[in-house]
């Protein structure tokens, strides 16, 4: 579905894309994120029953995830604080820098999308992935993330369970793009178990997600 973006966005895409300089927050943040991940203690080996896990995940309609995001491609790299909230079919994504300043705020419903950029400019559309791509130049499978973030392979073309009985890998072709998610760590103190480190990739794009806190409502 094509997004219905206002004239202000259409006339300013190039200038916004150029001025949206993620590099000012990138290097130190990325180093902190990666070294922090490397120093985490490994989880005690556990095994879950996938049919039970899948059923429990499918019932999660309200949740919040807080953590870090690191993005890298051929042209840019940056790090951000991540806050994702799902309330039934409504999603809220907030990315902030290390000072707590908003980089992107994205609110989606089944019928509309609202994006607020780091300057406070507000944009509207009907396709979240398209709106983010036009504003930032970054491709993200926003629609699929509601389930992929919690380790539920909804609409994936293929997925594999790891030795612990949870999803370790999934893949989906979206148009010409093949998206792959590798789940590297899970938090088994949560019920159901939830991912704590994931790597989402497509071509030269690599997005590392580290979830420090889950809040299940």
Present the secondary structure layout.
Elements: H1 7-19, H2 27-38, H3 50-58, E1 62-72, E2 77-87, E3 90-96, E4 102-108, E5 113-117, E6 122-125, H4 128-136, H5 142-148, E7 158-161, E8 167-174, E9 177-187, E10 194-202, E11 205-216
Keywords:
217 residues; 41% strand; 11 strands; alpha+beta; 11-stranded antiparallel beta sheet; outer membrane lipoprotein receptor (LolB), chain A; 5 helices; globular; disordered N terminus; 23% helix
Walk me through this protein's architecture.
Its main location: membrane. Keywords: Cell outer membrane, Chaperone, Lipoprotein, Membrane, Palmitate, Protein transport, Signal, Transport. The protein is α+β, with helices and mostly antiparallel strands and 217 residues long. It has a single domain (7-38, 47-216), classed as Clam (outer membrane lipoprotein receptor (LolB), chain A), CATH 2.50.20.10. The protein has helices at 7-19, 27-38, 50-58, 128-136, 142-148; strands at 62-72, 77-87, 90-96, 102-108, 113-117, 122-125, 158-161, 167-174, 177-187, 194-202, 205-216. The longest helix has 13 residues, at 7-19. The relative contact order is 0.19.
């Amino acid at each position: 579905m094509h997004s219905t973006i206002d004239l202000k966005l259409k006339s300013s895409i190039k200038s916004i894309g150029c001025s949206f300089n993620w590099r000012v927050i990138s290097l130190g943040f990325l180093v902190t994120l990666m070294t922090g991940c490397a120093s985490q203690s490994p989880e005690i080996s556990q095994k879950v029953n996938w049919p039970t896990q899948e059923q429990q995940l499918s019932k999660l309609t309200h949740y919040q995830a807080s953590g870090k995001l690191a993005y890298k491609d051929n042209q840019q790299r940056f790090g951000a604080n991540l806050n994702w909230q799902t309330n039934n079919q409504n999603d809220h994504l907030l990315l902030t820098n290390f000072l707590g300043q908003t980089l992107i705020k994205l609110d989606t419903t089944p019928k509309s999308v609202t994006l607020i950029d780091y300057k406070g400019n507000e944009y509207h559309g009907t396709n979240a992935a398209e709106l983010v791509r036009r504003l930032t130049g970054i491709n993200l499978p926003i629609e699929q993330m509601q389930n992929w973030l919690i380790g539920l392979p909804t609409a994936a073309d293929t997925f594999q369970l790891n030795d612990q009985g949870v999803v370790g890998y999934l893949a989906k072709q979206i148009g010409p793009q093949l998206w792959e998610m590798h789940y590297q760590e899970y938090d088994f103190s949560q019920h159901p178990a939830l991912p704590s480190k994931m790597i989402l990739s497509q071509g030269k794009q690599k997005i590392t997600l580290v979830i420090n806190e889950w809040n299940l409502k």
